[in-house]
Amino acid sequence: MSGNGIGGPVRVAIVQTKPRKGRYSENLNDLRDAFALVMDDGAADVIVLPEAALTGYFLEGAVYDLALPVQHFADDLARMWREAGATRPVEIACGFFENDGGTYYNSAAYVRVESDRAQVLHLHRKLFLPTYGVFDEERFLSRGHRMGVFASSLGATAMLICEDIWHAIVPTIAALKGARVLLVPSAAPGRGIEGGDELESIVRWREILENIAAEHGVYVVYAGLTGFEGGKGMSGTSRIVDPRGNTVVAAPPDEACIVRAALDPREIDLARANLPLLGDLRAVLPDLLLDEELPLPRGRRDASDR
Description:
CATH class: Alpha Beta
Order of helices and strands: EHEHHEEEEEHEEEHEEEEEEHH
Largest sheet: 6 strands, mixed
Number of strands: 16
Shape: globular
Structural class: alpha/beta
Distance between the termini: 47 Å
Radius of gyration: 19 Å
Helix content: 25-40%
Mean pLDDT: 92
Strand order of the largest sheet: 5-4-3-2-1-16
CATH superfamily: Carbon-nitrogen hydrolase
């Protein structure tokens, strides 16, 4: 499939991980086994894993010992794919803690694995580092400064990590920049009770993902970490949402598992034709951005520009 999003369905598998906190090598071995299951149950073109998928999330100062350069991490993913017995190329999106020459980030890498190499197609560094409630990310990590759109087997793709997608302007910018698929690695602790036995945080996440997909006519692939870390339970519930805002497949909250769906790029075009909200936004956006009451940086114009 070409990077412009035109082509047949793309097979996506979400590997919802339940890592042993801080035990990267052991978690890598578990990933190799998961990759073998992906192949046993049917081929996948793209595999998506959660935020901090192979280390656990609440590492605090241990993040400095476990963070890796992106190419090192990509090579580890590729090695597990090959050791699982795979012989065909695959693309893998996975969250990890990155060491970029002594600067540390909560990142997600999108890697194309071939027989002889692991090519990093895109690297996203988390923009919003929460420092409220149980979170203290910004104490240990630097934040990213850019959200990019890149070509993948899924078409024009963007990655947003966990809280990034709670700020509505970020997926909106991704869609305006041409993204047709949003990948969302996440490590979200479960909180609250909504009605019966469903956590309030799970309900809120589902609403956000479905609303974003429907508003912008995009597929949303959400990969959630599961398991317990220091008494904090991660809420799992990985899911794929179609461009009309319908959940196609969802994982349970509390177990490592694999969920699958085929993403058809034609559904994006049909959804946008039937509800052209993104096109309307493109038309109105220049007027909105010219509003001088917005707290946006305004460059000084030369006399020739007046």
